[in-house]
Amino acid sequence: MSKMKWLDNLSGLTASVPLMVVLLYITFFSTYAGIKDSAQVAHINFGTCTPSAPSSNARAKIDYNIFVCENAMKWDATESSQGNFSYTGGDAVANWTSTNDCYMRGHTMVWYAQTPSWVQSLTRQQMLAAMKNHITNLMTHFKGKILEWDICNECVADGSSSLRTSFWQQKIGNDFIDSAFTYAHAADSNVYLYYNDYSGENSGSTKSDYIYNMVKSMVQRKIPIHGVGLQCHLTAPVTKTAISANIKRIGDLGLRVSCTEIDIRNGATSPSSWTNLVQACVENYNATSILVWGFDDSRSWLGSSCACLPWDNSGQPRTSVISAIDAAFTGGDATINEKRAAFLKLSPEDILSGAGTPIVFNNAIAKKNLQTRFTFNNNVLSFSLPTAQNVQVRVFDIRGKMAGELNLGIQTAGMHTVHWAPVQLPDGMYFAKIRAGGQSLSILFTRMNKE
User: Which stretches of 68-205 are DSSP H helices?
Assistant: First the structure.
């Protein structure tokens, strides 16, 4: 899975192939079939970890569209002896996700646990060479199959403003993280590279602030990092404000956020905890994926009695929890979209010709003081902002699978123009979702080659 490069930046070149465009609100899925459908209303992936290819799990394709191997891609599973690689478990999941039109996360490269003793006994230079070789081999083998890779995992000490004292840190020094990301980017420049950790979800905590400052420094020093994974091993009650603020400040650095390993102790009796966590993601443009850590309680690392997942020990859905998650994904904007659709008076001729007038956000959004207007003519997207806002554009194919994205970050008030260069986009019908300041607009367009 690669970051599509057909979305140029604000000063990008105009594409030579025009787009036939119509402004139209479209619902991606006509009926609800699983949580992933609700999540895609907010254009967030929803997934889980899996011990193996989930072909026998009836819920796999219904509720999830992104998967991560629980253990099969860790160092002890892929290179238990030096230079001898095994990809059996990872390949099984990667092939299944590809066949079933799902995304996959890679987990994990550099971690203090589940790393063979032969690695830990190496000298500094030997360890750096082994790290580079391991990362390069895995990145190359799974190239094109992974959306996000956890490059470094749990490197920060608990409750402390320092790195964990691990063999990586002791043998190599604090720059082992920089080295890992540099090796990964050299091996595959078209995959999102993540730092992943627990207890860093809430802004203002010692560990969270250290992680934030660490990745901020990496960005400033141009170390190739693209996202932060918040593991979200939480205990109810979970509140939204500090998590949302943390996601936002990470986004202000230009980084994505994925909630990568969610379980909420006592969450079964606290649907509002799930609501707050999901809403913290929905209201931030840079939150892209949400994954629970296990299909149900029977497969949780916390034990079958943990009551920490949306499905119980018997695999039955916790209705109140799932309803809370659904509502958090679809609330607010879905109502606005439904109202907005009623104002569109486009005929089949409009669709074929690309005619139609720009959509102006209706009163439901005007009440939020965000009367933002978008136009989409040929291959140029123009929009005006009343105040400075975060702006994001994503494009999806007819099945609702994301084909590309462009995070513009904070744009100043006034008119802006984005040029589209869809040279890698096959002919067909696509949806574009434009988000500004938490509000969004859907459009439908058709790409056709001129012979």
Answer: 75-78, 88-99, 117-120, 124-141, 167-172, 176-187
Question: By the 8 A CB rule, do 439 and 421 touch?
Answer: no
Token digits of residue 111: 């971690």
CA-CA distance, 287 to 142, in Å (whole number)? 24
Residues 6+ away with beta carbon under 8 Å from 309: 263, 267, 292, 293, 294, 295, 296, 297, 300
Domains of the chain: 33-331 (3.20.20.80), 344-447 (2.60.40.2550)
- The residue to which tokens 């020990």 are assigned: 313
Cα–Cα distance measured from residue 4 to residue 446, given in angstroms and rounded to the nearest whole number: 18
C-alpha to C-alpha distance for 102 and 401, rounded to whole angstroms: 8
Percent of the chain with pLDDT over 70: 70
pTM (two decimals): 0.71
Per-residue pLDDT reduced to its tens digit, 326-356: 888 876 433 323 222 222 233 323 322 333 3
Per the model's pLDDT, the better-predicted residue between 286 and 158 turns out to be: 158
Just list the catalytic residues: 154, 261
Mean of the pLDDT values across residues 16-39? Answer: 44
Which residue did the predictor score with more confidence, 418 or 35? 35
Are 395 and 443 contacting, i.e. CB atoms less than 8 angstroms apart?
Answer: no
Amino acid at 357: T
CB-based contacts of 82, cutoff 8 Å, min separation 6: 118, 119, 130
